[in-house]
Automatic annotation (TrEMBL):
Membrane spanning residue stretches: none
GO molecular-function term, one example from the UniProt record: hydrolase activity
Keywords associated with the record: Hydrolase
Segments forming domain Isochorismatase-like: 6-177
InterPro entries assigned: Isochorismatase-like_dom, Isochorismatase-like_hydrls, Isochorismatase-like_sf
Gene3D superfamilies given in the database record: Isochorismatase-like
Name of this chain's protein: Nicotinamidase-related amidase
Amino acid sequence: MKSMPCLIVIDMQKGMSWPQAGERNNPNAEQDIIELLAHWRVHHGPIVHVRHLSDEPESLFWPEQDGALFQDVFQPLPHEMVVEKPVPDAFIYSELASWLRDQQIQDLVVVGVSTNNSVESTVRSAGNLGFNTYVVQNACFAFAKVDFDGYERTADEVHAMSLANLDGEYATVISQEKAFALLSAAVGQSQ
């Protein structure tokens, strides 16, 4: 029997919603993540919440201050796995890979922020570790950034390039509807 895919919610912390985080894309990403989270919970699917705790005191995500806390609507339930990380990649310095393997989870559905940082870093590792990894395009978002040559890139451009880096090599980029279908198919197989 195939296990259900695991929903991995990356860095949905209060600091990500503050203006100083920067200009972003996908303004409805939070709503899409909320819907995915609700769907996973209704079907008792595995969920991992990832939280960045920075080593830099000036960071929005310095431990024990408001920016590092989960946003209220993304509070983990007591039985849901929480991974705390000091670097963008949720697999580094954590038990995430071994926990997923212990749960016999092979399929990962990744959402959160930011697409080109913690999402991309985590997804690259997931793909390299052999997990079947899916990134929900509209349930992630990025921030505007200046590229290496000094050109300002919009949040949409940063997001699109990051998804292009991932799709087909480390993961498959999918829609929210496809994510629902993946879970539904696994629920149907387990009955």
